[in-house]
Amino acid sequence: MSTQDLVPSPVGPVDVEQAEAALVERYPRLVRIAYLVLPPSFGRNRRVLTAHALVQRSLPRRRVPGPDVPGPRRAEDAVDPGYAYVRGEVLRQALVAGLPLRRLALPHRAQFPPLLPHVWGLRLFPRVGGADELALDQQLSRLSGAGRAAYVLRGLERQGDPEVLRVLAAAGVEDPAAALAEADALEDPAPAGPAIPADGTEPQQDGPARVGEQGGPGRTGARDQDGHGGSAAVAPGGPALPRRLSGAALLESDEFDPCALQARPTDLMRRRQHARAAFVALVALVVCGTLLGLPGDGWGRNGAAAPSYARNPAAEAALDPAAVKKADPAAWPAATRQDFSVWPARGGLTGDSALLRRALAVWARPGGSVQSSATPGTPVGPPMGPPQLLFAGRVDAMRVVLFHDGLRAVRYAEPVEGTAGAALDFARTDAADTVGAAALVVSRASGNVRYLMAPWVRETAVRDLLAPAKGPRPLGRDADGVTDPLPTPAPAGACTRWNALQVRDREGLRLLTDLGEEAPARLLWGPPSAASDATGTEARKAWARTACQLTAVRAHGVRSVNAWRFARQPLPEGAGQATWVCTRAETWRGTGSRVLAQFLVPSPEVPAALAARSEGSPACGVRDPRVLAGVLWKAPGGAWFVLAAGSPDFTSLETSGGVKGRSDGPLLTVRAEAGARADLDGTLPDGTRRAALR
């Protein structure tokens, strides 16, 4: 039913101006109601746009009459009639939009994707919430549209059961009592720990965040997210943890707010392909029209063009499963270089030509239903020749194929049952050495990861980086080298555990960690010129306090992460000795490295605090091992100090701006006021001035 039918308002007559005022004033709430009632099968992008469209179409064209026989006044009738009418129209349209299209029935306008608002080139969706919001969204998806409407009216609008039944009946629900029963059966989602920001980072603030009584750091000489320089301080114990919310209260969270949106691009490769195809079609049309107008004979059907791609010999060889390369299983022990090129083909489906053909075809021409991902800087084009087969087998209800073409590791996965849900993942792995080629991710499911181990790996174990005193736990492997499931560090949430993969090869122990990519990253410890695997006692103790900062380099194409202690600094008022650690994440592509300067107070239970960060800087690396950073720190007695430290080759440090001070050598301690901001730089032996990391 359209808003033009002008169903009488059950709460009194409504003028167009009154309805418009209610719509504008309560627009975010109306859109939230529409978003929650719409079926989750639409996808979040379409739900957002449809919710806005339904609300914007709920304005009547003329005055809406009230009921013919006014009933007795109730407490629920105190609501603004304009808002009540618009809300009813929003519910009516949202329920109609969720109805399936029938072949012989005339479709309603709400059942089609909205013409306005329309967004080109972007996908919009609300902010991602926590586990509680996800659990509630999953439970709401199992309800009917009327059941979701009843739950929203009761939880979001705080309406009693009689009023819910009346509103549902007015919105066209055939059995409001059944819808209310569905809402009654919905349970609150189970507790999932403390709430955190949607992007997984700690809350930022414009100014110093105080440190606790034991003292804690902020940032000096850094820029905040708005581009302003200055200092920032962080609390020693992290932000306060709110209590878990009920399902009704969760409806107010950002997870279900279609007015506070995040934007991501659409499939850029497909868009580029479509643009090219349209351009080629236009050029072809112009050329054909021109040739048809010429007298006499013109070009042949194909002119001077080469055979089509499908008939090109090199392309055919790359897509031929019989031409796929397979390394000799006995080749790797005697190989001069142990990398992916000597991995034997393993798995129970290496002889399945149909599976390999599908995997190669999807690699060359991924369809619109394929979920594709690639690490930054990794080309996603088809293979230039027959690739090498590393694995083909069944893992976690998926058929998985792993290829390597000398530059990339490519993972293809398809469900064992059905044809939907194929995935294609690219990871750059060129110049991988023995450790870099020790493992590849073969499966991700239910928060767990499985690795396919290199044939030269002798032992595999799991080590919790946050528990350095705890020994490793053995990790089993099957005959093909696939490990048992290993819980991965959550990309967002309270950092209470960080599982790393410990492997032993003929050279010794290695430590690898999953950063959300196909190839795990190697963890190192020590000065850039002499870094080694982070398996020693000192290294494990340092990584126990800095591992949670690895979330800053997730999905960034990271090859290895090295941490090293570049300074120790006595704290004022006899508070002990602080430690400065620099962490540098190197990438497979060679550019885009990220540097983190971290400050550690004497207490081993307090995690490292991020003092500064930089991307693309050579600092803290082999080419330029120098690093300089500072923090604003509160002493146990309540006084504030600017603390700064540089690598040993700094001859002097100096602060300017809100705090002025100077020292000879790589350490600086200056008394400051709470919230003070300062710029920090240092001098090298040759007189060069170097600014602190920002």
Give the secondary structure arrangement, pairings included.
Elements: H1 16-25, H2 27-37, H3 44-56, H4 81-97, E1 122-126, H5 131-141, H6 145-155, H7 161-170, H8 176-185, E2 218-223, E3 229-233, H9 247-250, E4 261-265, H10 268-293, H11 313-318, H12 353-364, E5 371-374, E6 388-395, E7 398-404, E8 408-415, E9 423-428, E10 439-445, E11 448-453, E12 459-464, E13 473-474, E14 486-487, E15 499-505, E16 508-513, E17 521-525, E18 532-533, H13 537-546, E19 558-570, E20 577-587, E21 594-600, E22 609-615, E23 628-634, E24 640-646, E25 652-657, E26 661-664, E27 667-672, E28 678-683, E29 689-691
Parallel strand pairs: 5-9, 17-19
Antiparallel strand pairs: 1-4, 2-3, 6-7, 7-8, 8-9, 10-11, 11-14, 12-13, 12-15, 15-16, 16-17, 17-18, 19-20, 20-21, 21-22, 23-24, 24-27, 25-26, 25-28, 28-29
Region (Disordered): 188-240
Biased composition (Low complexity): 188-200, 231-240
Compact overview of the structure:
This protein is of the alpha+beta class and 694 residues long. It has 13 helices and 29 strands.
Characterise the protein shown here:
The protein is of the alpha+beta class and 694 residues long. Helix content is 22%, strand content 25%. The chain contains 13 helices and 29 strands. Strands 12, 13, 15, 16, 17, 18, 19, 20, 21 and 22 form a 10-stranded mixed β-sheet that branches. Strands 5-9-8-7-6 form a 5-stranded mixed β-sheet, covered by helices on one side. A 4-stranded antiparallel β-sheet has the order 26-25-28-29, with no helix packed on it. Helix 1 crosses helix 4 and helix 2 packs parallel to helix 4. The longest helix has 26 residues, at 268-293. It is globular, with a radius of gyration of 31 Å. It starts with 15 loop residues before the first helix and ends with a strand. The model is unreliable at 1-9, 188-245 and 296-308 (pLDDT under 50).
